């Protein structure tokens, strides 16, 4: 059956700011407490979606969350009208206000883990929303993420939604950023690779500088919940040294598409063993495009987010890489990409660069901004009948006008205590749910 990999990108939220919240994310730490441009950030993300749609790649969009998250602040003991809550938190706990104002839900690679219907015993697409317990600002996203995905993928004939795993570090789950899929083509059964950074119950090497986020126990639980076909799941450990270098998720150093793995050799403790396991599990030829330290240093790979590029199938089954503009400006990253395109032994024929500087300064590249969902034609039709989240020229124009109408051009962490920001954000989100055909999605929209 025909199937398509649809990239559902997260719209950047109106409170996009550099709060320096993500432990282990070097770019986030370096940009902490500087001013951001939410309008530019949202438009940069939108232009990426537009470019891929123009290339014939199916593209979807997911809405941001309501921020500041006043409901979370109320649960923590702050009382009064919304404006009073925000001002009080800004005075007594400014770090908490930054966490509850984060626009991090834009990085929907962390929204959930998704298994296509070709991979599952019941022939349905399975979703498990990530619980994200390792970072406060992300741990508050799960309930709204679940509501969004259930609204978009609502047809029970095709889609199964699992609750987030218990929210604790034993089952720490960071979503698709630690999940890879190999297949001959998108519509055929594949092998799902779950990459973990630590184990809560087994003695394995651990990073020393930064915490590993994804647990083996969470990955195993998701594989069971998704009813992946027997023998078609594989568990691989992240390299602790890579985590300590700033590769807090697998997708900082590795990306797959069909039968191609594009990665840095430092992503896994023993790259030869990892390649051998993948080759054995797949049973079809796999192209391993591996960069060594002599090609690009681990530090430069993390800085440029070379391996957080999107690896995409074009018409004719040729592939392209969509890389951050920072890679074009890096001699080692650009040279390595040029060498890949010139090598006729792999299916990658084209590289493009995309400007996502606003996202990159907070530690998120092209692959961070998208959740990959493989859909058959009936499954995609079900999504399109239920909402207006699948990208086209008309939706692009409406979203661009919406961003230009509602988003601020400058936002510093000290601006987060402005009650007008909450009013502006909610007015914009109320309009957005109408544009996307999602109905009353947020708590503030309900009586």
UniProtKB/TrEMBL annotation:
Presence of the UniProt keyword Hydrolase in the record: yes
Entry keyword set: Arginine metabolism, Hydrolase
EC number: 3.5.3.23
Residues where substrate binds: 19-28, 110, 137-138, 213, 251, 362
GO molecular function, one term: N-succinylarginine dihydrolase activity
Domain of life: Bacteria
Root EC class: hydrolase
Active site: 174, 249, 368
GO BP: L-arginine catabolic process to L-glutamate; L-arginine catabolic process to succinate
Claim: Iron is one of the keywords in the record: no
PANTHER family, alphabetized: N-SUCCINYLARGININE DIHYDROLASE
Subunit organization: Homodimer.
Annotated family: Belongs to the succinylarginine dihydrolase family.
HAMAP family with a match to the protein in the record: AstB
Protein name: N-succinylarginine dihydrolase
Organism: Nitrosospira multiformis
């Amino acid at each position: 059956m025909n199937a398509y990999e649809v990239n559902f990108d997260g719209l950047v939220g109106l409170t996009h700011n550099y709060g320096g919240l993500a432990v282990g994310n070097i770019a986030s730490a370096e940009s902490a407490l500087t001013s951001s441009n939410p309008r530019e950030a949202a438009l940069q993300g939108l232009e990426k979606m537009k470019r891929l749609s123009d290339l014939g790649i199916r593209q979807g969009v997911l809405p941001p969350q309501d921020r500041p998250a006043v409901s979370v602040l109320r649960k923590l003991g702050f009382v009064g009208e919304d404006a009073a809550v925000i001002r009080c938190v800004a005075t007594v706990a400014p770090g908490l206000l930054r966490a509850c104002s984060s626009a991090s839900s834009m990085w929907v690679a962390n929204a959930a883990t998704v298994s296509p219907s070709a991979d599952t015993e019941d022939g349905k697409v399975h979703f498990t929303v990530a619980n994200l317990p390792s970072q406060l600002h992300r741990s508050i996203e799960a309930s709204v993420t679940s509501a969004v995905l259930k609204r978009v993928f609502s047809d029970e004939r095709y889609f199964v939604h699992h609750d987030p795993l218990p929210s604790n570090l034993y089952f720490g789950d960071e979503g698709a950023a630690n999940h890879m899929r190999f297949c001959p083509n998108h519509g055929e059964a594949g092998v799902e690779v779950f990459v973990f950074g630590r184990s809560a119950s087994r003695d394995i090497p651990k990073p020393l500088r930064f915490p590993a986020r994804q647990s083996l126990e969470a990955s195993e639980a998701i594989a069971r919940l998704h009813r992946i076909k027997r023998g078609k799941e594989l568990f691989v450990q992240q390299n602790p040294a890579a985590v300590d270098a700033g590769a807090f998720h697998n997708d900082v150093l590795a990306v797959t598409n069909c039968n191609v793995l594009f990665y840095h050799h430092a992503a896994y403790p023993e790259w030869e063993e990892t390649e051998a396991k993948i080759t054995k599990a797949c049973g079809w030829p796999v192209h391993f495009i591996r960069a060594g330290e002599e090609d690009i240093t681990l530090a430069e790979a993390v800085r440029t987010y070379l391996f957080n590029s999107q690896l995409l199938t074009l018409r004719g089954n040729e592939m392209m890489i969509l890389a951050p503009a920072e890679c074009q400006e890096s001699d080692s990253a650009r040279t390595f990409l040029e060498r890949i395109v010139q090598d006729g032994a792999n299916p990658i024929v084209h590289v493009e660069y995309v400007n996502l500087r606003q996202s990159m300064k907070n530690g998120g590249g092209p692959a961070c901004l998208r959740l990959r969902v493989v859909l058959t034609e009936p499954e995609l039709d079900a999504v399109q009948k239920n909402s207006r989240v699948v990208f086209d020229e008309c939706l692009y124009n409406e979203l661009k006008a919406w961003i230009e109408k509602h988003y601020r051009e400058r936002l510093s962490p000290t601006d987060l205590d402005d009650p007008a920001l909450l009013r502006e954000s909610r007015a914009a989100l109320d309009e957005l749910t109408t544009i996307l055909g999602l109905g009353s999605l947020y708590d503030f929209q309900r009586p």
